[in-house]
Each structure stands twice: as C-alpha cells, then as structure tokens.
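Handoff note, outgoing to incoming analyst
You'll be picking up this chain. Sequence as last confirmed:
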Amino acid sequence: MVGEALCMAKDEEEIFRMAQASVFSLRNLEMLKNALHTYFGEYEKGADLAIARGEDSYLRDLPSMPAGMWDLLFTGICLFSMACISNKQKYKKYALRARAKVHSWLQKGNPNVGHHAALLDAEYYVLKKKHDKASKCYEDAIVKASRGGFIHDVALASERYAQFLLSSNVSDHEGALFRIHDAIRSYSEWGAKAKVDDLLETYKDLLEPSAAVL
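Most recent structure output, in case you need it:
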C-alpha cells in the first residue's frame, strides 16, 4: 500500500500500528488492503488476510458501514480463487461462509448485493467445475452490476469472467478478449488508471491485433 494518501514518510506496518487505536481506521485500512489484493491478483495474500482477521470482521465491528458489502465480496473472490488453486479446505470453508452471508442479505431484501451474490456464485461454480453455470452467473453479475450503476463491479466481474474463459478447462480466447475490453473500458470509466495499465500489461499478447482473430 503506497501513495500520498498513506503518507510516504511512514511504512505500511507503522500505518497499521497507528490505526490500532481506532477500530474504524483499522477495519477500513484492512478493507482497502483487501481490495488491492483482489484488484491486483494477490489472491493468496487476500485470502490469508481474510482468515487471519475473520472473513466478516469489518461487518462485526462496523455493521452500519456499506463498505462491508464490498469487503466481503473481495474476501470471497480471494478465498474462492485460492480454493481453486490450492484445493485447501481452509479456503473452501471461509469462501462458502462469505457466499452464504451475501446470500442471506439478498434473501432479506438488500437491493445492492444481487450482483455480488451472482459473482460469488460464479466463483463457486468454477470451484465445482460446473462451467456452464459459472458462465451464466458471471454474465448475470455483469448485467446486474451495470443496471445498478456499479461500474467498478462491472469491471471486476468482467475481468474475473475473462480469467475464467482463459483457463485451461475453457480456453475461449475470443470470449476472454471481449471481456477484457469490457473490463478495461469499465475501469477507465471508474478512473482506475493503475488497474487499466495493469490489464494492458498482463494481457498484452491477447490484446494485440492478431489475437482478435483467435
């Protein structure tokens, strides 16, 4: 975590130590770190952080803050990713708990988490190797996030969908290219220049003109 907003004169460890005096500051710093791990593909760090602090620690301590909805989404994505990569039970356990919590909000009528539930459902079906259901849920998440005006979630869902389409089990390069362009467009609209640059570098081979005909 770097940048002027965090005061470059202090390192991350010192910033978190200073935040210990305020649960509000600490949980929000953890949420921001969780977001960065998710957006920049550091899924193991995000998953381990979630387990260490409790997957719903933000919500327990700051139940009235809407950022808790996104904190749990980021947590779920990191945990499901690591469950797929490592097949470790600890990641599966916490991932399922995060998904269940989001679905409980949906059942209680929360109008802002439909796309979160759909995205975590997609991650769940990837884990279960049910590829058709995963694709349907990714598409559902993108549509619902777009209708709700959550452009950052459109971007994230599009990126996650592209990663799924590029996996060895699916290998749909044309579909992945379409979704990466969607992600880049949405991240650009959101103003996330660093993330756009990251995608352009990560997928530069796919984004070359010759890749579009694959």
